[in-house]
Structures are given as C-alpha cells and as structure tokens.
Amino acid sequence: MKNLQQSENKKLQHLLSIKGLDKKIIEEIFNDADKFLEKKDIKLDDYTSLNGKTVCNLFFENSTRTQTTFEIAAKRLSANVINLDIATSSQSKGESILDLINNLIAMSVDIFVIRHSEPGIPELIAKNIKSNAHIINAGDGNREHPTQGLLDAFTIREFKKDFSNLKVAIVGDIEHSRVAKSEINVLSTLGTKEIRVIGPKALMPSNINNLNVNVFHTMEEGLKDVDVIMMLRIQKERMSNKTVPSESEYFKSFGLNQERLKIANNDALVLHPGPINRGVEIESEVADGKQSAILNQVKYGIAIRMAVMVMMIHKK
Amino acid sequence: MKNLQQSENKKLQHLLSIKGLDKKIIEEIFNDADKFLEKKDIKLDDYTSLNGKTVCNLFFENSTRTQTTFEIAAKRLSANVINLDIATSSQSKGESILDLINNLIAMSVDIFVIRHSEPGIPELIAKNIKSNAHIINAGDGNREHPTQGLLDAFTIREFKKDFSNLKVAIVGDIEHSRVAKSEINVLSTLGTKEIRVIGPKALMPSNINNLNVNVFHTMEEGLKDVDVIMMLRIQKERMSNKTVPSESEYFKSFGLNQERLKIANNDALVLHPGPINRGVEIESEVADGKQSAILNQVKYGIAIRMAVMVMMIHKK
Amino acid sequence: MKNLQQSENKKLQHLLSIKGLDKKIIEEIFNDADKFLEKKDIKLDDYTSLNGKTVCNLFFENSTRTQTTFEIAAKRLSANVINLDIATSSQSKGESILDLINNLIAMSVDIFVIRHSEPGIPELIAKNIKSNAHIINAGDGNREHPTQGLLDAFTIREFKKDFSNLKVAIVGDIEHSRVAKSEINVLSTLGTKEIRVIGPKALMPSNINNLNVNVFHTMEEGLKDVDVIMMLRIQKERMSNKTVPSESEYFKSFGLNQERLKIANNDALVLHPGPINRGVEIESEVADGKQSAILNQVKYGIAIRMAVMVMMIHKK
C-alpha cells in the first residue's frame, strides 16, 4: 500500500496516524515545535507563515477543546480559519462527505482538520481527493489521534530527554481509546524501552498481544518502576453500558492517587489528555501535583499543531 | 423608483438583485473576479483591501455552505468577519431586524450579507438604513440570489466566451427557486440568445410568460441544441408536499443522465448550484463527468464574492 | 481585601466591577476610547496592538449582542478571537470552570471575556488563576456589567462634559439589573451631583438605602429636572413571574414617552443598554428621537472595549 502520509521525497502530505510515520519526521516536528515554544531560532515571519492559507475544522464528532487547539494554532500562524458546524450544515441535506470536501477544496481550503466517530474516515478522504490539500486526523473512532500522541511524546521528551531508557505505563480503557493507540505507536517508533498498558480485561483490545506492550491488570504491578504514567480519560458512557462497574469502583481499582503514584519511580511524570474527571481516573492531588505535566501537554499541543501545519504547507 | 443598488454615479452601493443591475457593472465584476483567479493584474495588496473593514453574515435562514463562501471571500481580503447565529441572538428577545442592523452599523459593520426566507427583506433593509453600509442579498425567499446568478454566468463566460450565440436551459423547480430567477435575469441582461426553462407545470411561476423565456415540460424537447444546462436543486420538502410525486418519479422525468445529456450539443456545459442530490436531479456520471463545471462554479464563486465586496468598498 | 483589579502600581489587571475602580483609571480609559473614536492622537499601529494576542469569549449565559461587541473590538485591534460555545463544550462533560480556564491559559489565551448567570464568578476566576491572563466581566448575574457602565458614563461625558452638575435618573428593574449597579457605581465614582432610581417598590434592591441614591416610585416625580434618563431593559420573564403586572401596565407606569420626557430638562439625554423593547419600557418616538443617544452608546461601546483591552495588555 502506498504511504498516503508521506510524499515520495519523504515529506508530510497528510497526518492520518502515527503508524507508518517515519521517526525522522516525528523528530523534525518536535524540533519545529521547540521553536514555537520560543526556545531557539524563532523568526518573526514564522508567525505569518500560513498567511493567505485556509484551515477548515470539520468536526463530525463534537469536541470544542480539540477544535480550539487547532483554531488557536492556525490563527497564531495567520491562517484563515473556518469552523464548520456540521450538525447544521448541508450534511443534514444529505450531502456526502466527499462532496463536501471537494466543494471546500474548490473554495481553496488548504488544510482540513477532521474528527469523525468512524475509524478510517480521514484516510478515506485522503485517498479520494484530487488536489494538494492536506488532511489532519483529529481523532477517528477508536483508531488514532496522532497530534495527541505527538504532543504526549513531546512532553515526555521535554522532561525525560531520551526514550531508550524509559518505562512508560498507559492506564485505562485501552480498547476504546484512540489516544492510547497513538501513544503506543509513537512510543514504539521512538524506541521506548518498555511500554505497559494497565486496565481491566474488558477494556483491552483483542489484538493487544500483537502491539509489543506488556499488559497488567492491577496498578500495583503495572506502575512498579515506571518513569511515565499516561492516564486515559474514562468515558462515562462505558459505565452506563456496564462495561465498567461504577465511578467509585473504577477509581478504587485504576484511579491514580498519591499512594499509587509512589509505586512508580520517584520522578515519574503524570500525563492525561484531558479533560480530567477529578476523582474518577485521577485524584486532584495528583492532577495538580508537582509530578503532573497535564497543563504542559496543553501548552505543547499548540506548538506541535503549529509545527505540523507549517511542515505540511512549507516543507515540500 | 430610485435604484437602490447603484449610486448616482453608477457605482455599486448594494447587491439586492440582478434585476436592475447594469450590464456594465456585471462585466466589471467579472473582470475583477478574473484578477482574483490570478490570471492578470493581481497586486499583492489586493488581498488586504478589506483590512480594518467588518463583514457581518446575517443568515436568518441556515446555509452553512453559502455563509462559508462569503466568510472565505471576506477573510481572503483581510476583512474581520462576524457570523451572527440569529437563532440564538436577540432576535429571540423580540428585537426587530432593523434595530439589529442599526446596532451593528453603530458597531461599524461595513458589509452585511443577508439571507432571509422572506422575499424583499434585504431591499427593505437597504431602503431604511441611514449610513453608508452595504447590503448583499445572499438569497431572499424565492426571489433572487444575485451572487449565485453572477457566478453561474461567470462560469459560462469562462467556457463559452460570448452569450449572444448561446442557448441555455434551466431545469427544475423554477417557481420556488431564487437561483432560477437570478439566472434568468443575468442571462437576459448579458444578451443570451435563448433562455429556456424546463420543468413540470406545477413548478412554473404564474408570470413565466412575462420572463422572456421559452417553456418546456420534457427534457427531450427542452435540451435539444442547448449549449448550457443549468440544473436546480430539488427541495425534498416539495415531495412531502405532494407538489412533486417522488424522487424516483422526478428523476425519471427531469433527472439529468448521460443519455439525456447527449440530446444537448456535444460540448454542452452542465452547472448546478449545489449541494447536489445524486440520483435525484442529476446522475453521478454527469455530475462528475467532463462536461460538468460544478466545482468550477464553487471556485469562481469565491472570486465573484471577493470582486463584489471590493467594488462596494473601493469603487465609489 | 486585596484589590484584584489593579496591580500594585495601580495598573488595570482585571475588570471585574466598577466598584473598587479608581477614578483615574476610568478617566484614562475614556481618554483612550476617545482616540479610537478617531478624534485625536490615533496612530496606525494602535490597530495592531493586540497582534498575536488571543481573546477568548466565554459566555456561560447567551448574549450574541454583547459577545459581538467584544469580538469586533478585539478583531479591530488585530487579536485572534476564540468564541467558545459553552453549551456544547466540555462543560457538558463535567469539566470545572477553573480547569477549563487553566487549559485555555495553557493554550496562551491572554484575555478572557466572561459572562455568567451567577454573581462573582469572574472574580472567583481572577482570584484563582496563576498567570498573567486578564479577566473582563461581561456581566455576572445581577451584580455588575462594568464595560456597560463605562460606556454609559462615557456617552454622558460626550454630551454633557462635566458630571458635577448632573442629575441622572435610572429607570426600571433596579434589583435584577447588573447594568443599574454598574451605572450607579460609575456615576458615583465620577462625582455625579445626584443619582436617582425610579421603579416599582418590588424591583428595588433591599440595600437601596446604602447606595447613596434617591429613590422614586413615579416617573412624574423622579424625572423632574434631570439631565440624563437611563432606561433599563425590562426582562419579560419578570412578567410571567407576576413581579411586574403586564407589559401595558408597566408601560403605563414606567414607560418613557414623549410627554414624560418633557418633565425632564429640555436637553435631557436618553440612554438604554439595548436591545430595546419598543412600547414596553420606551416609546419608539423617544428611542429614535433627537434626545436619544442609544446608538451612540453602541458605537462608543466598541471604543471603550478596545481601550480596556489595550490598557490591560500594554500599560503594565
């Protein structure tokens, strides 16, 4: 299969998944994001590098938070941003997604940021468009959420530098989480020493044994000696589905509190993609504590998204 | 009656309808749109020509697609764009439209883009405001949708150059379509040789005989020898109203398929204002075929709207 | 209690209420607003003074009109503006307001414009954030709406120059109106000779006697000799609550018509925060008459909000 994400000369055409993305591109995105965090080599006109370009947020599944991060990132680069409210758009008039995309391309949209509840929709679009427009997957079903994976790994790099010595645990509903998939893929590509997943059996994907991760079903075992703890947001819908017993039961077994944090290494870093359910998957003392890098993730997320968009438009 | 659209020195003050618009102004809009398609004479600062100006989208009838085209056009000219969600605005607090407009003028809105389900509302507003603000009608009931008419004629000009030898057929629900009215008016002003309308009797306006068009009730007769076929979107509401029998019945009688396309001239151009109902008024093979200029219309629509806005603000 | 609004060197950090705001700062805001009305000392780059800054509208209580004024003001200063639709945001996922704000600060939001139905929320946020972000209260319950108070006083200053000789009457539902509270506070700080409130007993706040205003229960008494009449919008909800008898009853007792206007001084100025209920609290002849400054208020409101935002960002 042709690699849709990278052009023949290895440049970033679309960002659909971490899977299949070269380590070299990931590291280049990280280096560019560093610039936007104003550490080095920043030039004034970097902030006008998307001037005259149009970025279109197409969220078929509502997420004000994620949409806002892309909107802020694009506007900070001087792009024109169009937020399409799909619920009230011609989608309801029965227009197909591809017709909608082709119309927007005709209006000269340069970058589409797409979230959809169905896995593979961003890829399907990337396959079918006839133009040089770029697709960024902002979450497709339970498959991937690549910019989240990138910003998580970038946050780890900021604090831990090297991945080759790290033990990292991902905690929660692995099966339904696109964030977990992107995290596993990015950590794997970057050569992380050990990737662990911790969660109830009912929330492990059936192919978990092919993912090159170590599976744990208790926090007590799984957190031992880890350098990074990546919590996942528990979807409250799962509880009404009875897949997960109840909020308090879940917290009792898999919630991260001060005591459990001590099982990990002393300087273990705590991440969470947000928004956090305080007292459900994480205790406030930990979320707001000195090992938490949760707000750093949000900050770095803007820089990562700026870097991705600039790379797509300018590094061809 | 005073011509509201044009100032005394023949400049474009408002765009309310194609009816009453000088051929000279239409041709000037086309020439300016040509520039924005980057064919000739484009200057860099044309893209900042609405810098500091405010364009307000006031859609009392929802249309994400049309609103997006105006938003993109205005932002590409560096205007500030305000999208007012009327449903949730003070309209629901009982504020009158004129009070709302006068308030927005006090906030220094320069151009209003207005869609309303009632014919004549944009004109009513243009008549009553006391300021130099500009009104663009983005569709008023079944009356007119002038920028759509302009972009349709512009698309024809791109492919066919001269109108004086053209036979053009407009197909569908003529009575309820503001697009059809604007198309008839613009084609007429530009001196089109023959304008035909094709559709069931129930969907012809009562004054059709005064419109200087030839009326047909079958595709087989109406498409013979035409150079351009302008399809209209069928409103699915009509079918539940029983005005139109059913989707499949409609397609059987008035849908454009490959076979019927052959009745027209060999190089006949196919247009549609979008979003298309595939398999209802037009077959996919035709909509995506080599005679289709449907996506060209979308592209040219941005340039036309840019040209209209620049003309209003700068050519006084 | 520490003054949250002003930094130690007396600069404007937040705008939470007129109460506690120095007269000197109010006058400085007025002078800066004057500039944006293009009267004097305007420099071209004043219009890019928020370039690269991000202003976030967080309206927990819907108000398209007020939100639009802040959006226009911020965009006119070249800021990036984010309008968060709270109803559909992660608020509905149970995220706390402070978590939401801290996330947005991590995304580098510089100014938050906050409206909330509960009094004191903007202050609570200002107290708890750990950053240099600025909070503007755009209305908190029945407590304050400081930019409205400022623009009202600014409008009076434009027409009447000096406050020390003015008699000003505020008419309507004083108890539930945040506008009335901010008006009383700003007029008081600016040294207005006499502040009157006029309204039914049921709509007077219980602490009215501590507010240093004179209370009247009829228009005939209250309007005598006044120089400025500030009408309030009557909330129609009050009538279904039976707090106010009916629209026509209310208009009969407290509506401002031509005849009552004559009770006041000849050149008395008429203000209203909008949107007006024609025929309920004010007659059209008065609202549109030559003593009305209602549309001036709207215009000046943009300049006041520009001045406040520039002061927060640049005068530190």
> For this entry, what is the oligomeric state of its chains?
homotrimer
Number of strands of chain A: 9
Give the low-pLDDT segments of chain A.
none
**How are strands sequenced across the largest beta sheet of chain A?**
7-6-5-8-9
Name the chain pair whose interface involves the most residues: A-B, 22 and 23 residues
Level-2 CATH architecture of the largest domain in chain A? 3-Layer(aba) Sandwich
Can you characterise this structure?
The structure is a homotrimer of 316-residue chains. The first copy, chain A, has 316 residues and is an alpha/beta fold. Chain A folds into two domains: 23-144 and 299-314, Rossmann fold (3-Layer(aba) Sandwich); 146-298, Rossmann fold. Helix content of chain A is 37%, strand content 14%. Chain A is built from twelve helices and nine strands. Chain A has helices spanning 23-36, 64-76, 97-106, 121-128, 146-160, 178-189, 219-222, 236-240, 247-254, 258-261, 284-287, 294-314, and strands at 54-59, 80-84, 111-116, 134-140, 167-171, 194-198, 214-216, 228-231, 269-271. In chain A, strands 7-6-5-8-9 form a five-stranded parallel sheet. The first copy, chain A, has a four-stranded parallel sheet with strand order 2-1-3-4, sandwiched between helices. The longest helix of chain A is centred in the C-terminal third of the chain and has 21 residues, at 294-314. Chain A is globular. The two termini of chain A are 21 Å apart. Chain A binds chain B through residues 52, 54, 80, 82, 84-85, 88-90, 93-96, 99-100, 102-104, 106-109, and chain B through 47, 62-65, 68-69, 71-72, 75-76, 236, 274-278, 295-296, 298-299, 301-302.
